[in-house]
Structures are given as structure tokens and as C-alpha cells.
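thread from #wetlab-drylab

HS: before we spend reagent money on co-crystallization trials with NAP, can we at least see a predicted complex? here's what I'd submit
DV: go for it
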Amino acid sequence: MYDIIIIGGGPAGLTAGLYSARARLDVLLLERLAPGGQVLTTDWVENYPGFPDGVSGFELIDRMKAQAEKFALRIQTEDVSRVDLSGQKKVVYTSQGQLETKAIILACGATWKKLGIEGEEDLIGRGVSFCATCDGPFYRDQEVAVIGGGDTAVEEALFLTRFVSKVYLIHRRDELRATKLLQERAMAEKKIEFIWDTVPQRILGHDGVEAIELRNVKTGSASKKDVKGVFVFIGTIPNTELVKGQVELDENGSVITDNNMETSVPGVFAAGDLRSKLFRQISTAVGEGAAASFAAEKYVENYKERG
Ligand code: NAP
């Protein structure tokens, strides 16, 4: 039986893994794909302390992984299909079989939210994208739309200006949610045209995106922009399907924890973007991963005492 199984290999999971491995616990980190999570789709990170010139999302994750593995963290690529948190011994089911552990740290992150409009699903991978870093270079000298007004939308719109001839930044209000510095940069960028108070209605295209239909939410007027790409950055939904009905979630489906990152189930901890909280940053995920590891370590010590 493991001491701790960590599910998810983004910044929260890798940090929990680093701390747990250094504490000489028998810990295993399970990750569906390659470690990294959403940070891998971030071109450049400039607000993570210790990197005054910024660092690519890829390099940051690579360094976090190398640091955790230096202390012998075991990372396994496996899709977790089910967890049973009902007993003192927690059970994790994967395609390879079942694993038993004393404690679990949930660090499964979040997934990009979709618009849910006509054309979106059909054209994913053919013009509809959730990753400017991955797909931006395909749109050299073309016009694209970015949907959303948060940090991600503005950051990614700025990144896209390296390649495209124009970005329509389409936001449902007349004020951005993004941090002021990003707002200033976007406002100063000639390739970005803001379309305020507007929501997408339909994405048109056959083999690829050809246009996007829009509606002004104040006037009700409809318009259309001929774009080759639609980048959707309207927030995220927490990856908590695995634990639904087993740990307490908030109204958005995020995991509720106490200050020590412990969920409503003893021995089950959560860290990073799947947690119920207001601020989602790499730096906060890392802090929560460390805190969750510490709390899990204490839990495992007591578990031993209970025999
Ligand atoms: P977010 O902050 O939740 O912003 C989502 C944006 O999409 C909002 O502007 C929202 O509009 C809009 N939106 C939501 N649902 C929509 C819909 N159905 N149709 C049209 N627009 C919709 O998400 P995010 O930008 O992905 O950021 C997530 C978290 O990561 C945040 O905490 C953010 O600060 C953090 N983050 C930080 C950085 C950084 O520090 N460099 C970079 C990326 C992300 P309203 O504004 O009207 O609600």
C-alpha cells in the first residue's frame, strides 16, 4: 500500500510529489498524459517568482519534474478511471488494475470551458482552438477571433499577434477582467481590435473555420467576422468527475478544502485549479501542493499509529 497517491501532474501535483518524496514517503504520482497540465499550453510565464526574464511553460514544468524526480518521485502515465474514498484505505482504479493508498492528493486541475454554440464542437482542431501556443503558428497573416476577457484571453491574444494579421478580441462586457498590465499591452497592440458587449452565436465553416457570427448583447444587433481561427478562453471547469458524490464540492464543482487542503473526507487532500478558490495561479498551485503534502504526511504518520 502506498502512503500517498497524487492524481495529476501539473504544478500542484509535482510540488506535492517533490515534498512527499523528500519526506521519504512511499508516493506515486499518476498523470494521464505527460506532466504539465495547462501550463504546457502557456507560451511564456512572467509572474512566477525566481524567473525575472520569464520562462516558457514547457521549461518551467520540465524543471519542476526534474526537481521532483531528483528526490525519487515516481511518475506513472495512467488514466485513473475511478476512486473509492469510502474506507480508511483509499483505492485508485486505473487501466492497469487497482492501487491502494493511505492518503490521496487530488491535483487533477481544470479543463477549458466550451462556448456550447453551433459549429464549435465540429470545428475543434479545424480552426476552433483552446491553445494559442499550440495552434497560433498555423494562422500566419490571417485573421482570428479570441473569445473572453480574462487573463488567458488577453495573454493569448497578445501571443497570437506574433503570427496573425489581426485578432478580434470578443468580450461579453465593455470592461476586461484581465489584470491591468495585460490590458494596457492589449490596448496598445495595433493588431488587436476589441469587440465589446458581444457574444458569439455560431461558428461557420466546413473543412475549417470560415467566419463567426456575433450578437451585441446591448443592442441585439448581429454581425459576422470572416476569421480562419476561433480561440476560446472563457475560463475553466474543474476536473472533479472522479470524486463527485464522494467529497464535498461547491456550486461550480470545485473541491472544498480547509486551510490544510484537506477535503471533507479524511485522508483526501486537494491542491491547484480543481480547488474551490478565487485565485488560480501557478504560484498558488505550488503553495497548495506543498501544503497538501505536509498535511498528508501528518495524516500518514497518524495512520501508522492507528495501525
Ligand atoms: P476567467 O478569469 O474565468 O475569465 C473568463 C472570461 O471569459 C471572462 O472575461 C468571462 O466574462 C468570459 N466568459 C465566461 N463565460 C463566457 C461565455 N459563456 N461566453 C463569453 N464569455 C464568457 O478565466 P481565465 O482567463 O482562463 O483565467 C483563469 C484563472 O487563471 C484566473 O484566476 C486567472 O487570473 C488565471 N490566469 C492567470 C494568468 C497570469 O497570471 N498571467 C494567465 C492566465 C490565467 P466576464 O468577465 O464577463 O465574467
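DV: The chain has six helices and 19 strands.
HS: ok that's useful, forwarding to the group
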